[in-house]
């Protein structure tokens, strides 16, 4: 989970990007298989996919809900959150599958409290 804290009453837009390389990851179902993602609201998230005779084709874009918690003492009209996480396998440690995924939260928030917002995961096989 990412946390940004400040004692300022005026908050500027937040932009954060990180690239992660892992020995083990699951790019087909990163939420339910405990790969790094922006915090999901539900512990189990349904993924959209279609079954075929010899393989399973997953949706290329997965949308799920995450939280943003905003303090009520922030005096900004609207704050843009542009947060992304790119996850790559360590190709020196893995055989075969070398898919990646990108997790993104791109929203503008103008209210306070605990807010549900949509994040996306784009998978690349």
Brief account:
With 125 residues, the protein is an all-beta fold. It has one domain (14-124). It has strands at residues 14-22, 49-51, 56-58, 61-70, 79-89, 100-109, 113-124.
Explain what this protein looks like in three dimensions.
By secondary structure, the chain is mostly beta strands. The protein has one domain. Helices cover 0% and strands 46% of the residues. It has no helices and seven strands. The strands form two sheets. Strands 1-5-6-7-4 form a five-stranded mixed β-sheet, with no helix packed on it. The chain is elongated, with a radius of gyration of 17 Å. The mean pLDDT is 77.
Please supply descriptive tags for the structure shown above:
125 residues, mainly beta, two-stranded antiparallel ribbon, 7 strands
């Amino acid at each position: 989970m990412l946390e940004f804290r400040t004692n300022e009453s005026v908050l500027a837009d937040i932009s954060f990007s990180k690239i992660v390389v892992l020995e083990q990851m699951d790019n087909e179902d990163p939420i339910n298989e405990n790969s790094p993602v922006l915090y999901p609201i539900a512990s189990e998230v349904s993924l959209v996919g279609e079954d075929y005779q010899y393989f399973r084709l997953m949706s290329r874009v997965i949308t799920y809900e995450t939280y943003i918690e905003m303090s009520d003492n922030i005096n900004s009209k609207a704050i843009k959150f542009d947060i992304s996480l790119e996850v790559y396998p360590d190709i020196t440690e893995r055989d075969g599958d070398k898919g990646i995924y990108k997790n993104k939260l791109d929203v503008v928030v103008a209210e306070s409290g605990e807010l549900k917002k949509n994040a996306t995961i784009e998978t690349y096989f």
